[in-house]
Design brief:
alpha+beta; Cathepsin B, Chain A; 2 domains; 6-stranded antiparallel β-sheet; 10 helices; 56% helix; ABC1_TM_dom
């Protein structure tokens, strides 16, 4: 869900991992100011760990991206009176969300990277954000060092090389599957003409021998098409099984070759979820 904010489109991004809320908030704010930044780069400059990102590291990362920042502890009334959203809020003391201002009904608009963009009344908002009538906010806006040049992170692998390596070994079987598909297509094209021949030249001319001859051809084609489908399905299963095994083995090789620092930065449930996605 995207919304219009100050005449510009605010694009929503969902956090990819449990501890990604801080970098994802920065990603959304950068996108609002026409700068696309890779989430891996944001994790790096935020010094993310399994507990997330500290408020000080979030400020440092914002400055590195070319933003002026003003951390403050303010009341709800002071927050909604400022005129330069979006701003980052410290939410429930363990999460980051973005404050987007008020809608026409006077409700507060929040972009939560863990869920979606939603609205809250003033009283509801106080329950989640403020403590002792005040909450922590990071006011943020571009300065003269900010550029709209996109920042793309380094790719961990080359997708074209990875896929071409597997498809090269399966080239013959893929061509065979394609040939079988062409064969089935030709049979489906021929059948209507055979039915037409039965009616026009067999039934109308009362030529029983011709009818039996065409029916025999249809039975042969039907049997042949079933045989083609059998081999086609067999090859499909073999290809998909081999493909999955190779991808899982590559993933596990990559996983066991990662340094211990990677596992120190990740929550166990996130790693298990990735393994489950691949397996």
């Amino acid at each position: 869900m995207n919304i219009k904010l100050n005449g510009k489109i605010f694009e929503f991004y969902r956090q990819l991992e449990t501890s990604d809320c801080g970098p994802t908030c920065l990603r959304m704010i950068c996108s609002f100011y026409n700068k696309e930044v890779d989430i891996r780069y944001l994790r790096k400059i935020c010094y993310i760990n399994k507990n997330g990102v500290s408020f000080n590291n979030l400020i440092s990362a914002s400055k590195e991206l070319g933003f002026d920042t003003l951390p403050a502890k303010v009341t709800v009334d002071q927050l909604i009176s400022n005129d330069f959203p979006p701003s980052i809020l410290h939410w429930r003391e363990n999460h980051y969300v973005i404050y987007l201002g008020l809608n026409k009904k006077g409700e507060i608009i929040i972009s939560d990277p863990g869920h979606k963009i939603f609205t809250l009344t003033k009283e509801e908002f106080k329950k989640y954000w403020s403590k002792e009538d005040k909450g922590i906010v990071l006011f943020i806006e571009p300065n003269e060092h900010f550029t709209e040049e996109d920042i793309v992170g380094e790719k961990s692998f080359n997708e074209k090389i990875l896929f071409s390596k597997y498809f090269e070994k399966m080239k013959f079987k893929l061509l065979l599957v394609f040939s079988l598909m062409i064969g089935l297509l030709m049979i489906s094209v021929v059948n209507p003409f055979l039915n037409e021949f039965i009616i026009d030249k067999g039934i109308n001319d009362e030529n029983k021998l011709y009818v039996f001859y065409i029916i025999g051809i249809q039975i042969a084609l039907f049997s042949f098409s079933n045989l083609i489908e059998y081999f086609q399905n067999k090859i499909y299963i073999e290809l998909s099984t081999n493909f999955n095994i190779k991808f899982i083995s590559e993933f596990l090789k990559k996983l066991v070759s990662l340094p211990l620092s990677f596992f120190d930065m990740k929550i166990t449930s996130d790693i298990l979820l990735r393994i489950d996605d691949h397996i």
